[in-house]
Amino acid sequence: MMLKSLQITLLYSLLFIGFSAKAQFNNFPKGNLFIIGGGERSTELIDHLVKTAEMRRNDFIVVLPMATTIPDSAFKSISQQLSKACSNKVYNFKNLRADDPTWLDSIGTAKIIYIPGGDQNRFMDAVKNTPIINSIERAYKNGSTIAGTSAGAAVMSKYMITGNQLVGDSTYSATFNKLVDKNIEFKEGLGLLDSIIIDQHFVKRSRYNRLISALNAHPNYDCIGIDESTAIIVHQNMVKIVGEGQVIKMSKPVNLRVNEVGLIKFQDLNFSIFTDGDSFYLK
Question: Which of 48, 144, 213, 228 is catalytic?
Answer without folding.
Answer: 228
